[in-house]
Amino acid sequence: MFVPELSHPYEVFEHTADIGLHAYGRDLPELFIHAAQGMESLMVSPEQVQLATTQEIGVEAHDHLSLLIAWLDELIFLFDTQFFLPRTFEMLDFSETHLRARATGEAYDAQRHEMSSAIKAVTWHEAAITRDDNSRYQARIIFDI
Which of 79, 87, 90, 119 is positioned for an S-S bond with 49, CB 3.0–4.6 A? Predict the structure, then answer.
């Protein structure tokens, strides 16, 4: 399994009519942050997003994989309902079934933000979290666009 240096915490891959993401982390909280950063970068380049507003986000699920999907789904929901584009993330509390995080970014502005892809949903198709021989984590996520 290829695991890039953590200076490249995620990579995008093409998948039929959808788009996929491999995210990497030294631990699960870092993996979840990198997955969120990667997903957000599919919509708008991070360099275009100012750090103007902070939102606290909490999600629950029954295991790590469903928690990752719930986390990314919640970020999509925030964009769909409030046009919120987060750029930075901080995990405040993290367990196998619960996370609480702080996301900082700003509201989408069509005048300043160039939208690359509109993500409809996170899919369960091929979704996985694995751990390599160096105890680093990798997530594979496919998005419906």
Answer: 87
